[in-house]
Amino acid sequence: MARIINSKSSLYSNRKVIILVIFCLAITIILFSVYQPERFVGVEYDVRIVNGFTNNSSLALVIWCSSEVEEMGGRALQEGDDFSWSFKTNSLGTNHYICTMKWDERRRKFDAFKIPRDIDRCSLFKKCYWLVREDGFYFSNDEINWKKDFSWS
């Protein structure tokens, strides 16, 4: 009879441990998703790069973009043309899209999207816009207010 009681007591103790572990995991997941949802739940972002040249140049803006898991290829953008894509953040929060731009003799490689920099600045609506002009690269999260991020050189 003592063995049965000990076995039941042990079983009851094991259940308590399992329930405690599940509870701790659930709390961790909830807190992580509340405080860092972009790095956990696969939030969708939109990135758009626009040729904003205004000098009626016959030279296209050539763009090549890729991420750590995807080669998106190259495009030649005339004035006003754009290149855009959407993606969901991965569970590690390591999404990183790099683009290389070429216009005439100028060439510039830049981070079109990088989690640590862009999770907040792409706004509540998760929109990241780039306007490439003769004097540099401008960023916006609403396509109205543009801020120059950097120059060609």
UniProtKB/TrEMBL annotation:
TM helices/strands, residue ranges: 17-35
Taxonomic path: Eukaryota, Viridiplantae, Streptophyta, Embryophyta, Tracheophyta
Gene Ontology CC terms, in alphabetical order: extracellular region
GO BP terms in the entry: rejection of self pollen
Name by which UniProt lists this protein: S-protein homolog
Species of the source: Jatropha curcas
Main location: secreted
Keywords: Membrane, Secreted, Self-incompatibility, Signal, Transmembrane, Transmembrane helix
Compartments (UniProt record): Secreted
Family recorded in the similarity comment: Belongs to the plant self-incompatibility (S1) protein family.
Signal peptide: none
